[in-house]
Write a structure and sequence with these properties.
This protein is an alpha/beta fold. It contains 16 helices and 5 strands. Strands 2-3-1-4-5 form a 5-stranded parallel sheet, with helices on both faces.
Length: 350
Amino acid sequence: MRKLIHRFIPSNFTNVAGLTRRLLFEGKAAGRAAMLYSIGGLLLSPLDILLKPFEKRLYRKAGKSALPQIFVCGPPRSGTTVTAQILIKFLPVNYLDNLTSLFPRSPIMAQKLFGWIRRGRQRDIPLDSFYGRTTRLSYPNDALYIWDRWTGSDRKQIPDNFNDLTKKEIAQFFSALEVYSDRPVLNKNNSLNTYAHLVAEALPQAYFICLDRDPVFLAQSHLVARRFIHGNEHVPYGIRGDMKQVENPIDDICRQVIFHNQCMHRQQEIIGKDRFIILPYEDFCRRPAYWVQQFSGQILGQKVNYEELERELMPLQVANKIKVDNHTFKQIENTLAELMDHKYTQYADE
């Protein structure tokens, strides 16, 4: 059961029964769908294993990638899901979907055999999710089960290096995915904001779009996630590196937010601003058409009809609302002000 839950909740958990109950009765349809997909994946394991040799043959025949890869990353709860959804809707890219979660050993073969499920539906993807999870088979999936091949199943850990074989496997997989679709690949993996430089070595044509959300509201969202996912605000949510946990949950969360901010800027220093793009979440919500146009030109080298895009892609509501009691919210503000010597509520909605 622990492994089953871990496949669709990208975090650690301590109370399996409590989480299952909250997903069934308090979560959105996407949370319940993710549970069904996990069970479906177990039932389809024999077929997945049968397809694996054919999958490996695709990797060997793929050759070198000729198109860019786009990876959306950033701290958990920073807006990565909605950003990836919009880019998938409005850019000519391929992506890994919920169908592939049923075939983690042979995701490309699954798309080849059952790709008709999402044929012509890319523009219909709704801007809706539940902790990064979506409902239909044709909707995007983070595909963390693919990344587990190269980084291990403990998603708390940050890899410090990739050997030559791992780099080769990463390059082969994304080249094969590109060959199948004849399109650039877009994938969301939040944790890449901590080790994108390793992937950049394996994929020299890769670009990383890293979301940067107002730290106060990011910290608040982490607190809400701890309470829902774990039922306990003292249990960390998401990757935290070698950070030592402190007893006060507000202090601990704020330190985790700062850790991710430091990781983000460190990755940009290593990779460069052209390939590792830090994207303010709030600005993306207010000007999504502008950013889609920017990424289409900068990464894909394709012009878009901006006036038409702006008519179709309206500004999004910024999700920076106070969702905890005023005392707790003030604690978050004050703690971040002390730790960062700056207040970061400039993007708060009036």
